Amino acid sequence: MSNFQKTNDFNEIVYGRRSIKTYDPTIKISREEMTEMLAEATIAPSSVNMQPWRFVVIDSEEGKNTLGDLAKYNKDKVLSSSAVIAVFADMNNFDYSEEIFGKAVELGYMPKELKEYQLNAFKPMYAALSETAMRETIILDAGLVSMQLMLVARAHGYDTNPIGGYEKDQIAEIYGLDKDRYIPIMLISIGKAASEGFQTYRLPVETITTWK
Question: What is the enclosing helix (H) or strand (E) of 84?
């Protein structure tokens, strides 16, 4: 585990978060701490706990240079960041169902009978899902883990920026993934901000909420 002292201050984590455009390129994040942050992010919920998110952490200069060519309009933040996390959603996520539920039994989180009952119910349900329905489900789940990862990073004292402008049709294969299986969700650059991000206006709750 990292020795970094995480902040528990709600205002600092939530209201202090900014989408950062430039980072201090001298700041490096150890793979130990990055692993810790990813583990904390994956506490996020997912449909029947299938955890369909997959990460490619791009922290080498070679990897970031390659990514910079795929994200031309965001190249500066890619190259100056400590790392960029490419978030994907796995169309074959149910392949891990036995491991997920079996480990839950082993750890005492659920009885074996419940595991068997749930898997017997989920297997035909997942087998019957259309490709469109599966994509919609896993994209939602991967969005949840992405937001949680940005808040976790903030708690560790780092800044982030979600990036949607990149060559989504190329990124999986560039980093050795099956493009038909792994659906690109977003890039998340992470590091220490070199300049303060701008505050942005948020619509008031009464504008965006209906009470019934």
Answer: strand 83-90
Q: Above pLDDT 70, what percent of the chain?
A: 97
**Radius of gyration over every alpha carbon of the chain, rounded to an integer in angstroms:** 19
Phi, psi (rounded to 5 degrees) for 147:
-65, -40
Average pLDDT, the chain: 93
According to the model, what pLDDT value does residue 1 have?
40
CA distances from 58 to 82, 154, 188 (A): 9, 19, 10
**Domain annotation for the chain: domains and CATH numbers:** 19-195 (3.40.109.10)
Condensed to tens digits (0 to 9), the pLDDT of residues 22-35 reads 899 999 999 999 99
User: Is 185 strand, coil or helix?
Assistant: strand
Instruction: Say whether 190 sits in a helix, a strand or coil.
Output: strand
Angstrom distance (rounded) from CA 59 to CA 33: 13
